[in-house]
């Protein structure tokens, strides 16, 4: 509920402040006095975007601030937007300067206009004579019916949850279908690559061993000739071995005379033994050295296999084996994904079956609650002189799951006996739409929480008995919610729990719009002025009192 409102430097308003309470607050005044400006200011608190054109001429900025009593339906939203300071009130402030810089705060916290719009939906509902956007919106029909009873709320929540799961499953399958061809191609490549590696039966360091063997076989003659040459040099007659033997004997002979030569004799003996060992090793190596053309071919083939794998997946055999392990994991993941698709298809079928059943249950409940709602609405409209009103909820049950459980869901209406029912959006009469809108608000006022309803001249185009009935309905609505009415009708003004008159005057060459709270006597005078154009004639005042009396009697009947 809006408890107080402060507006400064806004259009022709210099500065006004008001306290508001429960029930009906009425705003009256001559055309152009600034009543619509009041609605513009309130709409800013509900998240509408501001404009520098709204800054009062000669001023640097405008400011609109409202204080609201908090209601349960908004607490979680305030916490979600991080603008809840645990107070019992909500303070919303909108400011804009001449450069176009706008600030929006909720409870002192900066808040985006988009978030404020969401908060505003929990605080305000606006109704104007030629603006019945909500009423003509197909989603509005669903919101009304699906909140009309606890039973249907539960059914809708169940359907909505399963539909959300179904949609997620369907999206996963569609994604898999879209990527399946690419994944299949990748799987085929990975399977072929891993088969190549498996067939190769790789051993670590095998490549270096093969390289060594190939080096020997490819250079067999060079190695053989070289070893033979070395062997000849070492062991031929009068060669190194023979000369070392002579040297050994000679050093042994002279060491008898010089003991310092003993170590030299030992070293020479050691060299002689080393040469003999080398000659033996070369001999053994030559005896083992063998050349096989088949072995060379096999090693060349094996070497090419390994080099080919290392070119693709290397550069080393260790890298090839690491790639193999990684590829196996990818294969497993892709195959699991294909398996998951089969599981998802089974899950989708089950979800589809459940949704089909739930949508039928929801359809029947909507049908039942829709009839109750339409009956209540028609009775309310008859009270407002649409005597031949008839209305029904029409739905088309979908063959496939939909977000709302049906293909379409719409109110059909006729105001005249014998005329076919037509979609609500095709109703041309603004007066009829306004009364339908008011009737809906009365019936559903307990569904939306205790917020503030703003009616901007929705009573335009009606008079007499219809005006009395509309005023009575507005008064009834105020029992569940705060009602703010801008009106030119004496019947609507007469239901006021608080009555403000908006007046426009010129001061120091500047036009000002001011707000005055009326006493009961001034309230009657204002109604009298609406009736006759005079607020002082006895007949006009008597008429004003009579209207109040008629309204009260009408309220009792309602």
TrEMBL record:
All residue ranges annotated as the RecF/RecN/SMC N-terminal domain in the record: 1-504
GO biological process: DNA recombination; DNA repair; SOS response
SUPFAM superfamilies reported in the protein's UniProt record: P-loop containing nucleoside triphosphate hydrolases (SSF52540)
CC per GO annotation: bacterial nucleoid
GO MF, any single term: ATP binding
Tagged with keyword Transcription: no
Superkingdom classification of source: Bacteria
Keywords per UniProt: ATP-binding, Coiled coil, DNA damage, DNA repair, Nucleotide-binding
InterPro entries reported in the protein's UniProt record: DNA_recomb/repair_RecN (IPR004604), P-loop_NTPase (IPR027417), RecF/RecN/SMC_N (IPR003395)
Coiled-coil ranges (or none): 166-193, 282-337
Keyword Nucleus: no
Recorded family membership: Belongs to the RecN family.
Function: May be involved in recombinational repair of damaged DNA.
NCBIfam families: recN
PANTHER family for this protein: DNA REPAIR PROTEIN RECN
Protein name (record): DNA repair protein RecN
